[in-house]
What does this fold into?
Amino acid sequence: MDLEKLFSIQGKVAVVTGGSRGIGEMIAAGFLANGARVYISSRKADACEATAKRLSESYGGECIALPANLAGVEGVESLAEELKSREERVDILVNNAGVSWGAGLDEFPESGWDKVMDTNVKGVFFLTQRLLPLLEASATAEDPARVINIGSIDGIKTPVFDNFSYGPSKAAVHALTRQLAAHLVKRNIIVNAIAPGPFPTWMLSTGVGGGGDVEATDWDAVGRVNPRGRVGTPEDIAGLAIFLSSRAGAFTVGEVISCDGGTVVS
It folds into this structure.
């Protein structure tokens, strides 16, 4: 029952997709700060490399950039093969890479639908599938490997914004989480999902009028409409991810845990 051992991820190998910014970067930072070696992936190579360098310098750990476009199986296979060439095991996979598309109901395009579904749902399934050998190499009955899928409260409640493919894609991630969990728990791989609410990210900034400028967005104003009176912090999301990845979370299976300051229940 020692606190350090209960929540330790020291020495774990973690992969965080969509790790160059936003929630992915927050989780990667939390893992690094607590002794994990972290691989981050994103579509834009320059941004991925810059974030990996910054996080390594900030937390003194090892953060490695592996850029990849996970909207298609080709990009998924490229990332999986690169990981297999570098590591004998993966202890934690965080499927965080995601996109959104905003348009009115009457004008919503097929391209926006397909891009969101391919990245947010297909990419999650096939990357998990392709990394099963590395996850199983880590997995034991005493210390299972972990998969954490990042969903959204928009997959639980009706979204505020006109992003007609995003909410359904995240609802699909939640359903996929439960189905994968039922299959993989027998192979000592635990699958759960986190459904974040408002966090200071590029994606939410574009929705609330900040134009993607995270620093210039009035997050205090956004937070005032949240039941907790604020937006989420890196500690909020990283703390939950660390719990799910540690001994403390080893009996939590197939759950979709909201991290939203009370938005859904309110």
The chain has a mean pLDDT of 96. The radius of gyration is 17 Å. Strands lie at 13-17, 37-41, 63-65, 92-95, 145-150, 189-196, 256-259. The domain at 3-197+232-259 is CATH 3.40.50.720 (Rossmann fold).
